Model the fold of this input.
Amino acid sequence: AALDAIQARDTEVQAFLQVTPELALEAAARVDAARAAGEPLPPLAGVPLAVKDNMNLAGTRTTCASRMLEHYESPYTATCVARMLDAGCVPVGKANMDEFAFGSSTDSSAFHPTNNPWDTARVPGGSSGGSAAAVAAGEVALALGSDTGGSIRQPASFSGVVGMKPTYGAVSRYGVVAFGSSLDQVGPFGRTVEDVALAMDALVAGGRDPYDSTSQDVPPRFADAVDTDIAGMRVGIIPAFMDADGLTPEVRRAVEGAARALEAAGAELVEVELPHLDAAIAAYYVIGPAEAFSNLARFDGIRYGYREPDCATLAAQSSLSRAHGFGAEAKRRQMLGAYLLSSGVYDKYYYAAQKARTLITEDYARAFDRADVLLMPAAPRTAFKHGEISDPTQMYLSDMYTISLNIAGNGGITVPVGLGEESGLPVGAQLVAPAFADERLIAFGAALE
Ligand code: GLN
Done:
């Protein structure tokens, strides 16, 4: 059914870079055989899954939507993907993304854009836009994305689906192509909070992954959290976020509506402050490019990636391979990272960003003295049109509500809260929980549905 849905809809949506009918039918046949033999079925048996194309899945290419990795065959399967397959999921394909996950629109894919299923003239958000669009279009029930600064939560908001970034370390990064290693986190997209909870249980089943030293043991109690009674619990609202420049009135009203819905369910609204959050975007665009520069150094045409033919010298081979393998945004990030880490400059920006990181992390920790979860917009506006935002710094503002969580490490979830009154497009509200209390995202998220 998922392959049929892709056949019917993906010419228009273009969520996929590769569709994998053989892998899908093989996995589905295994489920059928187990059922016929009367064996117990795993929890997600037969559930169609899309995998962001920065995650290795043996038998597929992992391109990161880049010419650099156009022909790169996954040598093994990433832990996050393997766990979804162990839970019974059927992999139907690799989802489009911004090149190397740099972006908020999926328009920087080297191969093709992805269209928002609600209005194909618009972007699905990014960088996990293919994953979000595949779920929104009904092509798959679940998808995996990665979130370094908002790349799950912002496209979930633009595409009208649920998307969750758990706490840094909750899900293994082994086998996921690194962007910012201290910021990257994998998480699921689904149509409902319960679907996302079931995917989270699958992702954390088996405990910490010895192949990712930052991964932690997280108990699989997400699905159980769906029915939690939130009466008497406290929801923090950040007044400065609700009055921010750039927040559109329709998104503000939709998020205020979500706050009232939580109140109606018995929660108490409290005001909290995050005084250093103004520094989040600036800190992110120092830390993120610095880490990206060091992670992407391996794509030199020798160890990995596109190799320019007929070069006379080694230096020419590596610089021409990089010049022709990477797109504009990937180059911009790496040039920025190289500059920021150069001597003399390093102390001024990188250290300052690390100090801001500590202050932002402490702000969140303090906020949770007063609140059990925080509620805020996921993105300042609804989905924009392809090509509408051409200035990179304007594009960076798409993540004004999501970036600080990657800096602090906490988990967040986007839950659709209706259509914008002016645009008629989906609006998502974002819930934020204390570190490693991600089951609260499920509890409060379910209360918003
Ligand atoms: N849009 C942000 C960026 O361009 C976040 C991307 C992400 O989370 N991968 O860096």
